[in-house]
Fold this protein.
Amino acid sequence: MMVGLFKNEVKKLYSHWRSFMGYILFLVLIPIIMWAYGKGADGIPSAFPENYSDLFLFTGKLNNGLTAAYFVLNFFWVHIPFLIALVGGDIFAGEEAQGTYRIYLTRAVPRWKIFVSKVLASFFYTFTIVVLFIIMTLGLGLIWHGSGDMVVFHEGMLILPQSEALYRFFLAYIFAFSNMLLVNIIALFFSTMVKNSIGPMVGTMAVIIFFLALTSLPLDVFDSIRPYLFTHYFDNWKIMFYDPIPWGKVVQSMLVISGHSIILLFAAFYIFNRKDIVS
Amino acid sequence: MNALQTYNLSKQFAHLQALDNINLAVPKGSIFGFLGPNGSGKSTLIKILTGLIAPTNGTFSVFEKQSSEGYKVRENMSALVDRADFYKNLSAYDNLMLMARLSNHDSAQNIDEILNLVGLYQRRHDKVKTFSQGMKQRLGIGQALLPDPKLLILDEPTTGLDPLGMVEVRDFILKIAKERNVTIFLSSHLLHEVEEICSHVGLIFNGKMENQGSIETIFSSIDQVTIDLEIDKKPETVKILSTLEGIESIQELPNLLKIKIKYAEIPTLIQKLVKDDIKIFGISQRNRLETFFLNRSRDQS
């Protein structure tokens, strides 16, 4: 039964054109960025020696696929949530807007199963978006620009050997995926409350922007609440490239992100399960 | 045995008492017409029965499965609630497949059979957004039949249809009731529709059940009816009719006479007019259920 319900939700999800927008965006935009990176790469290595030319002798290729992937990841982590919210926000609200709850929820199926299938389908979408992002950044980057050691600037300059860099990317993508799942859950949460898809999407982005503002404003008054805001950890995928990896920070980040995710998921279920379909 | 039984079912929306202690019994094998004016609580009751909203109080059972068993109470029933809305970007076949998976009736053969039954097999791969409302209603009834239900709940299934579509859906309801041995609970405010196809009726006003029973029982309680009489000599006819018993009022209209008369006196009236050489071109009786319903509505107001 659960497999059937999951298939249903995936089918419904991909019946909308907007579900493909994220994929199309990555398929079109990332190659353009990679091309531009290749064209503009001459400027980037020259920027390194400006600071360090007296200290280091660079041999080999520092502007490679790994650095390119890191560059794109830096650029995109604020944009992917929009794509996630666009689809996640429609999962519940879209049914109410279309009036399809009136046929879908009247069957002898417990609501929790329908809830779980919808959540899993939206997680599946998030997963595929992240996987495509990995393929288009790391995969395409390596094919296009080749491999080599990776340069990361954090409290100085850190050069990660290729094998170490790939492992760090793996950890960073897992971290980024958990962040995107939280964005997805926020969108689902709003989606259970309203009857149109625009509201949850705007609501999710408003929440992210609001908390990002609180996170980034250099005001002492927000210092005490910052550690509890999920946006405080939004770009913490970067710490996976530090040496050594600050595991304490990683655990704290994961606890806050997963705490928010679990609470919002249960709240969404509570609302959905008790919801009266009156329209 | 009753297919559906409710026990003191109530629903309160903020300050509105939408349903007030509804006790309803739908006999197995019947086509039960559930009547009431707009806003009387018909749809609210149906939404409770189908799990779309929760009652404030009371319970119900479907083929002896109790609502306290949660979603399992719906195992023997299926519904088309209100207008038939589908996933517009999917085909008729895909829509039915989605619904069929919910009840593990997702064999291609079952879906094709239903599409044939509702006359949409040729259009099975067309997106639902290209369908007319009548086709959607038929597909709606089709999706409700997928799990092979014993009780089919239809909430105003002919709403929004043109006259041809209405007839089509009515004939279809009769057909499935007969061929599939399904008990049908049909909510409607189209009284002629109910009178045409239903064996039992229940009336709801302002969230309260007023009457329920077989249609014969309801009709037997109707004492007076209104008839329209089309004759050639109006003044003479009025004179003759004024001598008859059982006539409450006669209204002269340009082309006919509208007469309120005791139901049992109609044959006497016809005999008398024929005997007095009045040419009768037409005699028609207002829908009896309509008469009953209007009387009850007046009582209520």
Remarks:
- The radius of gyration of chain A is 21 Å.
- Residues 2-36+62-273 of chain A form one domain.
- Chain A has a mean pLDDT of 87.
- Chain A has one domain: 2-36+62-273.
